[in-house]
Amino acid sequence: MSTAGPLAGIRIIEVGVMLAGPYATMMLADLGAEVIKVEPPGGEISRQVSDSYFASLNRNKQSVMLDLRSEEGRRRLGELVADSHALLVNMKPSAIRRLGLTYESLKQFNERIVCVAMTGFGLDGGDDPAFDYVIQAATGVAAMTGDPEGPPTLPGYSSADNSTGLTAALGLLAQIVSGRGGQIDVSLQDVMLSQLNYRAAAFLNDGVEPQRLPNGAHSYYVPAQLFPTADGYLALFITHDGFWAAFAAEAGIDGFATMAERAARRDEVLELVGAVLRGDSALNWQRRLQLLGIPVAAVRTLPEALAATPQALVTAGEFRLVGSPIHIAGYEPEYRPAPQLDEHHQVAAQPS
């Protein structure tokens, strides 16, 4: 088993706040990168949320406390930059520029430094506050989510922040691989619009505006949604005629053999399928249909999902966490606990 991660030897400076930036660099740290988290006096604000919150986003990192508003803090940052591959920051554009965290400001220390700025609307997009829920509202995600008779709905987790973190990590690595330094600009707004891919394309090219459908139903595939059962809810996702044929045989349903027919007669199909599924529990339907290779799952709570996937859980110090989703043959991450504030202050003075 290899002990060195695929990103061993890569050093990344993070000036991260809350979720999006720290999540991006934690993914890279799990893969073996050396991540130095630069924190202001008093510590990064997410330390005040809860210990488990901070631990879930900052394992495998080092902490150096610098006051970037001071001349000494900027000098020590320059020392770090001189010996690093990339710097990632998520703040308002004005703060990024004021603190000198752009490529234009830092190339004097290292022309090959990759500078990633994560903002709400882009480095030139202004300073309007841009938290995850705000972006979901502004990009149409909330409007297309929820019951058609109810209000717009937000997911139960920070989808915009997490998605932007992964996108920023990809851009950072791409520029490092190129061998060139430079500025990378990643915004929450652009990432969420990008993730609306086929929804946006349907409107831009065909004039089809997204409509909310009951039970989270898919706009193209039928049946593909949540269904109430005799006990619990079931997610059933029939995407092609082969799946339908297998499901219909198990459920005792005749007709609707083609995708086009099922889409054209959506209400009839859903009424019939719903009636059949109410005859058994969600777990029993899952067991029956999985044997046929049909995409299906009983709706779980988060505690139930974690209990069912112990292989996804790791321990970092005193905290149990969800581990890296990236599994590389021959490499097993070492999950170190999140650092104490300024625990690695000597790193800035003596870069490795």
UniProtKB/TrEMBL annotation:
One of its GO terms (molecular function) is CoA-transferase activity. It holds the Pfam family CoA_transf_3. It comes from the Bacteria. Keywords: Transferase. This is L-carnitine dehydratase/bile acid-inducible protein F. The lineage of its organism: Bacteria, Bacillati, Actinomycetota, Actinomycetes, Mycobacteriales.
